[in-house]
Write a structure and sequence with these properties.
The protein has 135 residues and is mainly α. It has one domain. It has 5 helices and no strands. The protein is elongated and about 55 Å long.
């Protein structure tokens, strides 16, 4: 949950880097929330007898809220593997594009610093070493 909240706090931050964990936890929580909203909206619309009016209202509101943070964390994830955020447009290449983007998103972080900033894994590892040394 901390990764999801971190992405929401960085609502429109398209600079820097995001770890694989940050991106995929954000995607997982979005999937869980959207699934819950669809089920809830379906139950509410069945209870009131309307079939289509309310069914997509809650998920649509959430989707509109979450689209900018999703693109921001996606661009930061691409920065983490030393790719420009414009690599997102790879997904529009027929057949191979979505697979290529998935491979890019699953790839491990670029070691060390790159033009987008410090390696987020290194920052966390350094913090944990400092905490261990202080105990």
């Amino acid at each position: 949950m901390k990764w999801y909240i971190k992405c929401i706090k960085n609502y429109a931050n398209f600079s820097g880097r995001a770890r694989r964990t940050e991106y995929w936890m954000f995607v997982l929580f979005n999937f869980i929330i959207l699934f819950t909203l669809f089920v809830t909206a379906g139950l509410i619309s069945d209870a009131f007898g309307s079939k289509t009016e309310f069914m997509f209202f809650l998920p649509l509101i959430y989707f509109l809220f979450i689209i900018v943070p999703h693109f921001a964390v996606l661009v930061r994830r691409l920065h983490d593997i030393n790719k420009s955020g414009t690599y997102w447009f790879v997904r529009f290449i027929p057949l191979i594009g979505p697979i290529w983007l998935l491979v890019l998103l699953v790839e491990d972080s670029w070691d060390g610093n790159n033009k987008y900033g410090m390696n987020p894994k290194k920052e966390i590892d350094d913090d944990s070493i400092d905490l261990i040394g202080k105990e």
